[in-house]
Each structure stands twice: as structure tokens, then as C-alpha cells.
Amino acid sequence: MKLIQVRDYEEMSKKAADIVISYVKANPNAVLGLATGSTPTGLYKNLIEDHRKNGTSYKSVRTFNLDEYIGLDGNHPQSYRYFMDEHLFNHIDILKENTSVLNGKSENPEKECERYEQMIREAGGIHIQILGIGRNGHIAFNEPGTPFTSRTHIVKLAESTRQANSRFFQSLDEVPTHSITMGIETIMESREILLLASGSSKAEPIRKLFTEPISESFPASILRKHPNVIVIADQEALKDTD
Ligand code: F6R
Predict the structure, then answer these.
(1) How confident is the model at residue 160 (pLDDT cuts 50, 70, 90)?
(2) Separation of CA 56 and ligand 1 centre (Å)
């Protein structure tokens, strides 16, 4: 894993955007894997700004998001489809049909998992996957204990994850109990992975990412086996890492 140390959230977002923009310019048919949450919103802001100023085009880019809550449709303000439309897709020239987010309202979530895997395969795999990291080391919604061999699957969310995400809902009760997520093996097949971390709440998971043995009890640890991972972390997130 390559570590890029930055000062703060702004610098992390700018560095990540520079990498994505250069890639998209060189590869107009890029296949991007995208994340939601607080971590990548600054990256998306930078992509939008650059698109407006410099005209970087996403007309032939395809995207696959990591995960979606089960039970929320794309019009629900807390669905990840809605998040992506609001924070990125509505503001760049990407074609909506080229953006894929798992369908949380699918009548057959198992089939939805297979459909998604097939779509990723047909797109030729993900070129750059953006990741955040959970406090318990989760990547996407792959909680501790998820097999490293997992493909896109349905998960029961850990209480700690529901609680962390409840800040976006009116109450904890409204936070869905299940989600669909890309599996760890699916993520590991991406050609390049960009993991972003900012703030002191990420200090412990970032320390563990670099020091803990590779184990399913800390899902992000598997990234150490990937040949092409860049971690961009700020001072606060690195405060416990030597
Ligand atoms: C989001 C996702 C999650 C988040 C993680 C960190 O699509 O898959 O794994 O990356 O929970 O969330 P934030 O960025 O809100 O700290």
C-alpha cells in the first residue's frame, strides 16, 4: 500500500480528485467504483468544480457504487442513489444510464446481487475503486467477519454502523437493518483502490490497517494483499500511526 499523507480533509479531497481526473482524461471510458458517506463528498465537489472549469468529460465513463440500503428507493433522501445524484451525477455530464447503484427496492435482492456482478464483469471490471473506512474496519458494508471470498451480497448491518449512520436519519429506528454490498473479493478485483481517511475517528482504523494481521475480523486488512492501493490520509487520521 502506498500512503499519501496530507494536512486535512481539503487536501485529501484535492489529491484524490487529481488522481481521478488524470485517469479519466487519459481513459475516457474509465470504470469508476464509487462510495458514499462523509469521506468522498469533498472529492466529488472537486470533480464537479473541475468539470465546470476545465470541461473534463464523463460522457463515456461508467460507475458502480459500493452499496445501497435495502428498503429505500432512489428517491429517498437517504438512499445512496439519491446521494450520488445530489453530490455528483446531477452536476457532471455523465449519462445516468452509465451510473449503477444497487437497487434497494429489488423484489429479489439475491438476483440483484447476481445482476450487479454480471454488469461489473461486462464492463470489464472496475478500474479505480474509491473507498472510505468504517470505525470497525468495514469496507463498503462488509462488516467484521465477512469472508474475504465474498461477492456482492446482502448484509445485516452491525449496530455500530447503524448508529454511526443514524446521524443522517430522523431517528435510529429509521435506519434500515439490511443493505446490499459489493463483496470483498469483488472490491479486491478492482485494478486500483483509493482509500480515503480524514479525522480523528479514523485514527484507530488507519493504525490497524497498517499494523494488524490480515484477518476477517478487520475487513480492510485484506487491502494489504492488493498490488495497487493508495491510502490518502490526513494528519488527524494518522495521529496514531508511526
Ligand atoms: C459507503 C461505504 C462505507 C463508508 C464508511 C465510512 O459507500 O461503503 O463503507 O465508506 O462507512 O463512512 P464515512 O465516510 O461517512 O466516514
Answers:
(1) confident
(2) 26
CATH number of the domain within which 170 lies: 3.40.50.1360
* Structural domain includes residue 239: no
Helix (H, G, I), strand (E, B) or coil at 138: coil
pLDDT at 165: 86
**Residue 85: how many other CB atoms lie within 10 Å:** 17
Give this prediction's pTM.
Answer: 0.96
- Domain count across the chain: 1
Whole-number Cα distances in Å, 189 to 31, 146, 197:
13, 16, 21
Residues with CB under 6 Å of ligand 1 are 35-39, 66-67, 132-134, 138-141
Q: Which residue range(s) make up the domain with 121?
A: 2-234
Cα 37 to ligand 1 centroid, rounded to whole Å: 5
Q: For position 242, what pLDDT does the model report?
A: 79
> What is the residue-averaged pLDDT of the chain?
96
E strand or H helix that includes residue 65: strand 62-65
